[in-house]
Design goal:
Elements: H1 2-10, H2 13-30, H3 32-37, H4 40-57, H5 64-79, H6 85-95, E1 99-101, H7 108-111, H8 113-120, E2 126-130, H9 133-149, E3 154-157, E4 163-170, E5 175-180, H10 183-188, E6 191-195, H11 196-206, E7 222-226, H12 228-234, E8 240-245, H13 250-261, E9 268-271, E10 276-279, H14 281-291, H15 302-316, E11 324-327, E12 330-334, E13 341-342, H16 351-358, E14 367-373, H17 375-379, E15 384-389, H18 396-403, E16 407-409, E17 419-420, E18 424-426, H19 429-446, E19 450-453, H20 457-469, E20 475-477, H21 485-491, E21 498-501, H22 515-519, E22 523-527, H23 534-541, E23 551-558, H24 562-566, H25 569-578, H26 590-636, H27 642-660, H28 672-683, H29 691-697, H30 700-722, H31 724-760, H32 767-796
Parallel strand pairs: 1-15, 1-16, 2-6, 2-7, 3-6, 7-15, 17-23, 18-23, 19-21, 19-22, 20-21, 22-23
Antiparallel strand pairs: 3-4, 4-5, 8-14, 9-10, 11-12, 12-13
Helix pairs in contact: 2-5, 2-6, 4-5, 5-8, 5-9, 6-8, 13-14, 13-15, 13-16, 15-16, 26-31, 26-32, 27-28, 27-30, 27-32, 30-31, 31-32
């Protein structure tokens, strides 16, 4: 009550932010006539003055108003597009490192040009991040006339190592073209467009390079993330992984698959919420018998157990035509948020191989992680991060807590006329499908364009078959037909058009209406199911009613839908029974719509906790990753490692002495053989230590100093033989290879550790605390092994002088 009263008196925080930006917008508008009066060269000269002002004083805010006014005028001259006031607000919000929520059709692509031009004057890395290659290329080509006119260079990063510079095609007509260039050149451009995964992979590849010349990225200064909720929230649970081939035999996967196929429902338990399945006691017995194993949980069978668990998940929770499709003899992942095919991605940890065995496909070799990072940690490296999307407000807490990003809802340029009807809820899936078909038929007869949103390939194919039987012309847009996406979307707003689409139709596409379609009531959005996230539903709704166009939306649901079945259909079923709902009849009720929204909120909160938990685990790895990558970088930059290596010699000798020649033990009881064996293994020599003499003189410290000095003399004599520069080069080459080898091994161990600590939760111990503790110990061990192996490699090298 109190917060409601405060909002009435002072307005919401969003209102206050918008109010504070209004004076800036007024100042930009005051400058419009000044910008219009300038010649083309005059605009460029004024911009150069602003750039010089920034480099003298170091404050972008001081030049913001003039920069926005010049960018707006440039857009008018080159693209015949003038930024609206609400777009100026959006530009300011993005420059300030916040998330701008702007509805579909409000021109986010144009909005981004304002802060990009302003921040490009710093001459540091300025990136516009999109969700796919098509949008990166389209937006860069579309907006490039503004940047090129003002004297900025534009780079485009694409998959398969393709990169381009955008250049003038016809300077008089303001048309542009792509010219192939090196990856490095694209990143050196003043403004670089690309996809989230390519930026992330380039970062990982840079940190696997063996020369600074191979690095393509520069500093992480400013990034605007388009469809920020998709990239920073939906994809946050998917780490970017560069992998090599591991050597697990594929025949074992087929054998384990056969073992899992013979299980009955009572042999396992499935948890759909977390997409996991576990064996019951009867299941364990059956698997052990089939595989000829006494104890599946024995330490020596840990790998088999892991494969059994993955095979069980493949059979029970990963569904064909929903989570993946089989095409050209391959299992291809379907992105659960966009419905797009992801041929370049594979489930990690042996799950993809388990799916291949399930579908009787040829098993691709399993991969071993060579480098990985989550989007969360990649984007938190930027000094200044901003984002834009049509739907962010529902996840404002997550943006704030994880990325420290404030969400600002930008008003629309024209009021939204779309009518959002209450949900219709049916008892069964069959009743719902009948109602959907009737609704489509009615709208088709009327001539109104319809966009039908489905949650999976399977559901879109089901509707396609029924509509085909009824002879209703329609287009299908899903992961199986994605090649025709642009063409299908181009016509989706025409009269009598019926388009069935998975979530892939939700982002980055504008469905334009013909005048006749507007007369017929605009685009009708028909949702066949509620998604776990309200944002995805809002994205679908947002396809209709752009820029003040008319439109309608309605969701058709049944108690058999996944969301309602898993998260709360009981309450709704009771309500329907109480109201006496007949077969084929739907219920349209605010209470039910609210109950469904509460179910979605529950799932969103649950998923937020999973992502937060993932980040807490990845933060542990992230600190270690930064230490290793920094060490690699300093080696490549030519750091002199001699003092470090001689320091390692001291600490290795001290550690061996503590283990074999303990200070508090009489020297006659020392394990001198053990000490010499280790010295020989590492330094390729031994020492004559007289235990009896040392018992008398008690000069252990002097003896150890003598050992260290002899080892260092040997090191210096090697250096004299091959020269100072050659020795420094040799140290760097050896250390790089040793660091990489141990880091890869450490990543593999951390993967296994994540699995193992989960079980410790059953012993009333916090898995995260256990993970932090064990991973810290493992990292310390790895650092010691790196030092030891580097030293051993150098001491074992035989130098032959010709």
């Amino acid at each position: 009550m109190l917060s409601g009263l405060m909002k009435k008196i002072f307005g919401t925080q969003n209102d206050r932010i918008l109010k504070s930006i209004k004076p800036v917008v007024d100042k930009v508008n005051d400058k419009e006539s000044w910008a219009k009066s300038l010649s083309d060269d005059g605009i460029r000269e004024e911009l150069k003055k602003l750039e010089n002002r920034y480099h003298e004083k170091g404050k972008l805010d001081d030049i913001l108003v003039d920069s926005f006014a010049l960018t707006r005028e440039t857009a008018r001259r080159t693209l015949n597009m003038r930024h609206f006031d609400v777009q100026l607000i959006g530009g300011y919000v993005l420059h300030k490192g916040m998330v701008a929520e702007m509805k579909t059709g409000e021109g986010k692509t144009l909005v981004a040009t304002l802060p990009l031009v302003l921040n490009a004057m710093t001459k540091r890395g300025v990136h516009l991040v999109t969700v796919n290659d098509y949008l990166a290329k389209r937006d860069a080509l579309w907006m490039a006339p503004i940047y090129l006119f003002l004297g900025f260079s534009v780079g485009v990063i694409q998959q398969q190592n393709k990169s381009f510079l955008v250049e003038w095609d016809d300077k008089e007509k303001f048309t542009t073209k792509l010219t192939p260039c090196s990856r490095k050149e694209a990143y050196l451009a003043d403004i670089t467009y690309g996809t989230n995964s390519e930026f992330g992979f380039d970062y990982l590849r840079d940190n696997m390079s063996y020369s600074l010349d191979e690095y393509v990225q520069r500093d992480f200064y400013y990034a605007i993330v388009d469809e920020v909720d998709s990239i920073l929230i939906d994809e946050a649970r998917t780490p970017l992984i560069i992998s090599g081939v591991a050597d697990r035999p594929s025949s074992l996967y087929y054998k384990v698959d056969k073992a899992v196929r013979q299980l009955k429902p009572e042999d396992y338990e499935v948890d759909e919420k977390v997409k996991n399945a576990v064996l019951t006691d009867s299941g364990v017995e059956k698997v052990q018998k089939f595989l000829g194993i006494d104890n599946l949980y024995d330490i020596e069978n840990i790998e088999i157990l892991h494969m059994v668990n993955q095979a069980l998940k493949a059979h029970t929770v990963y569904l064909k035509d929903k989570d993946y499709i089989v095409k050209d003899g391959k299992a291809i992942i379907v992105d659960e948020f966009t419905g797009r095919l992801m041929p370049d991605r594979r489930y990690s940890d042996g799950l993809h191989q388990a799916i291949e065995a399930k579908e009787h496909l040829r098993i691709q070799k399993e991969s071993q992680t060579l480098a990985s990072i989550t989007f969360q940690n990649y984007f938190r490296m930027y000094e200044k991060l901003a984002g834009m999307t049509g739907t962010a407000a529902t996840e404002a807490r997550e943006f704030k807590e994880i990325y420290n990003l404030e969400v600002v809802v930008i008003p629309t340029n024209k009021p939204i006329k779309r009518i959002d009807h209450n949900d219709l809820v049916f008892k069964t899936h069959k009743e719902k499908i009948n109602a959907i078909i009737n609704e489509i038929e009615e709208r088709y007869k009327k001539g109104q364009p319809v966009l039908v949103g489905t949650t999976s390939v399977e559901k879109s194919e089901e509707l396609h078959k029924i509509l085909s039987r009824k002879r209703i012309p329609h287009s299908v847009l899903n992961a199986k037909h994605h090649e025709k996406e642009a063409e299908i979307i181009a016509h989706a707003g025409e009269p009598k058009r019926v388009t069935i689409a998975t979530n892939m139709a939700g982002r980055g596409v504008d469905i334009k209406l013909t005048p006749e379609s507007k007369e017929l009531g605009g685009l009708f959005i028909l949702g066949t199911e509620r998604h776990e996230s309200r944002r995805i539903d809002n994205q679908l709704r947002g396809r209709s009613g752009r820029q003040g166009d008319p439109g309608e939306s309605r969701f058709f649901l049944s108690l058999e839908d996944d969301l309602l079945r898993i998260f709360g259909s009981e309450r709704i079923k009771l309500l329907m029974d109480r109201l006496g709902v007949e077969e084929g009849e739907a219920i349209e009720n605010r209470m039910i719509t609210r109950a469904i929204e509460n179910a979605q909120k529950k799932v969103e909160a649950y998923n937020f906790e999973i992502r937060k938990n993932l980040l807490e685990y990845d933060d542990v790895m992230n600190k270690q990753r930064q230490v290793i990558y920094q060490q690699r970088r300093s080696i490549l930059e030519g750091k002199d490692l001699k003092d470090d290596i001689l320091g390692y010699v001291d600490s290795i000798v001290d550690d061996l002495a503590s283990a074999y020649l303990p200070d508090k033990v009489d020297p006659t009881n020392w394990d001198i053989d053990g000490f010499n064996k280790e010295i020989r293994r590492i330094f390729d020599r031994t020492f004559d230590i007289d235990a009896v003499e040392l018992s008398k003189t008690k000069q252990r410290h002097k003896m150890l100093e003598d050992v260290k000095n002899q080892l260092k003399d040997e090191y210096n004599s090697k250096e004299e033989l091959i020269g100072n520069d050659e020795m420094r080069n040799l140290e760097r080459q050896i250390m790089l290879q040793v660091v990489d080898m141990h880091w890869r091994e450490h990543l593999k161990n951390m993967d296994y550790l994540r699995d193992a600590v989960g079980l410790r939760g059953y012993g009333q111990r916090d898995p995260l605390v256990e993970y932090k503790k064990v991973s810290f110990d493992e990292f310390e061990e790895m650092v010691k092994r790196i030092q030891e192996d580097t030293v051993a490699s150098i001491y074992h090298i035989r130098i032959v002088v010709e």
